[in-house]
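Dear support,

We are seeing what looks like truncated structure output for some complexes. This example has two components. We would appreciate it if you could run it in full and send us the complete token output so we can diff it against ours.
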Amino acid sequence: MKHLIESARRQVPRTDRRRLSVLSAMVALCMTGTVIAADAGHSPARQWWSPGDGAMLPAKPEYANGFGRFALVNTDGPIDTRKHPFFEPLGINGRACVTCHQPSDAMSISVETIQQRWRETQGADPLFAAVDGMNCPHLPPEKPESHSLLLERGLIRVFLPWPPKAADGSAVKPEFDIEVVRDPTGCNLHSEYGLYSENPTISVYRRPRPVINMRYVTASKFGVSNFIGKNGTLAAINPDTGKPVNMNLMADAREATVRTQAASAASGHLQAARALTPAELDAIEKFEMQLYGAQIESSGAGRLDEAGGPQALGPMAMANGRDGLLGNNLSNYVFPIGEGWYDLPDGKDADESARNAFRESVARGHDAFFYRTFWIKDSMHINSVGLGNPIKRTCATCHGMHMTAMDTANGWMDLGTTNLPWALEEPANPWNKRKAQMPLFKVTCHADQPPHPFLGRVIYTQDPGRALISGKCDDVGAIVIQQFRGLSARAPYFSNGSAASLREVVDYYDRRYNIQYSEQEKQDLVNFLSVL
Amino acid sequence: MKIQKIINHLAVITTFAAAGSALAAKPGDRLSFISCPIVRDTASVPCWLTEYDGELYYMGIQTDVSAPWQPPYLGHKVLVEATVSDKPRICGGIVLEPINSTVMPELDDSCNTMLPAEDKYQIDFNPRPPGPSSGRLAFDRPPPNAPAEPAELPDHQTFEITFDFDRSISFRHPGVMMRIVNYAQAVNAQTIEVTGRRGATLLSTGETITEGAAIAQRRAEEVASLLRGVGLKANVSMKWSDTPMDADGVEDWKNRSVTVVVSK
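Here is the complete output from our reference environment:
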């Protein structure tokens, strides 16, 4: 089957390869289903978790994926999901939190899973709800093209008021004007849902973030103060404690805590008619804060949690690890993997030799991540925070937090994934029949404000990111860095799903920063990322 | 102090005369100029250089966020306000120390020079390699203030906040802002007076550059807004002056400032 796909791939124009990738994914999904059945001896893993299912979530469930197996650890033990607000439908569209945060998909949702769900339900699953599971609510729900961004890139519509509103509901005065340049979804120019409607709204499209290892994601032990380290403005406040938070929870940092995020998601994504009760918020918070996840088995490297193996790997490493710790140093490491996977001998048979070779590749990938320098240039909120432009550093400079590779507090940055000229765009030429998928906005910074230091006064972007919340010109396209764990279970990558595979992630960075990775380095990095 | 300033001012004038005759600056000379930064790679961390009046000057190296001096940006000119040192050249450049530099806001594509590493330029005092650190910041930060009883604190305290040219609050300021907040909370401050200023710099060419007209107000408003936003109970008042500060070529960067007086 793989051969057939590769053969077909060679026969089609490059512009149609993404569609073929969708087909490949569907085929791979069928094969994945076979693997699951063959692994029935492990925990009773379930591929799709429907809202209101009522089943027990095991303490340590494992789920197959294209690179091996992903595992969760519920440190509170098995979770009874009956009447649990994370698992129960709370709104009119029948969704629950679990709809977009599937246990099998590292508590995010992969595009493979989304496609499978479409096939199995002919698009009737609550996942495809009009509110944000369609490119825009006014489109015909029965047509897959109405859901193209969800089906092809795993993107949920995020609709935000313009101008922005602060957490207390007050208006934020933006530093820039924004125009809709391209509206392939029809939403940003729509008379009811768009920027020029009675309630001006901007729709952007983003991947659901993984709800695992939240103790790390929300840690406030490093770099958190009342003032945002990257620009000196006020940090968001936990409304329950009155203390500043790290603002690393969401792509645009618009929610302060898991509780405020849950409350917002319930009214937005779930279309709940009422606010969550304190007891429901308690239950969601408790569940999320005790849940850990990571790849536990690698098709190439074997079991990742074996005794004496790399310290950073497997979900128990996450459950037992220290949060809020800077890892871009030789004291803690971002991902401590020890010395055991370097310079391995030949195995006693071909399988063991192949496993050892893969493990060595993972170790080399770690070193490429941790030690390989390149020039980081024109990246807002990294070059602009006192290091200079450019800087000669490594991946771990930005991905520096121990065990997750998130940035430190207030970790938004513009890597170019949504801003032109680096964002993925369809080539415009007479031979390319594909149309642009993503909206495009023109941002013009006001004359009384300093220009964006690397993009100037006029910026074209598919998603203004943090700027849709802060209103700041410097924040256009800045996205909060997310954790590296469970990557194998939740393609595609980047906030806008623009990298279909781990290889495309590596290729993006190679292009963006002219790193000039060798083919070996690229493969080593992919293998390394796949075991996290 | 005043005499020293006059002496320094004379040094500026001397420097200006020297610049006019294309003589190299001497140790102790003060230089203020706008130029393109240049980054030179080395076997370890890159160093930052700039050219002025036909001479190459060394500004500093890449370290980390703890550094007292932050490197400039390619793609922008840099305003350098510094003293010529008598130290041996580094990376081929005359050492400027102490140095204050600020990225000029507007983009300038002509500032794009990256020089490759050469064996003759080595950095042997590198406090922070380009990869992972040894587990500590490159420069020691001042120890955190020991918790003190409010009774031991003075009745009022003055804080000076300085800014980049034509810029307001930035990544440079969380530290000083937290010091203000901590003091205000410790003494249960009743009043906070914020005074914004508009700076100017006398360049070594004799020209004076002045910040935008509204910058003093913007600085005062932003600082006051942050202090109110953080929840201080004190009455926060503000004032500013649109008149640029006098520029004499001696630490003119200190005039791009806000003064915050916190009182019980």
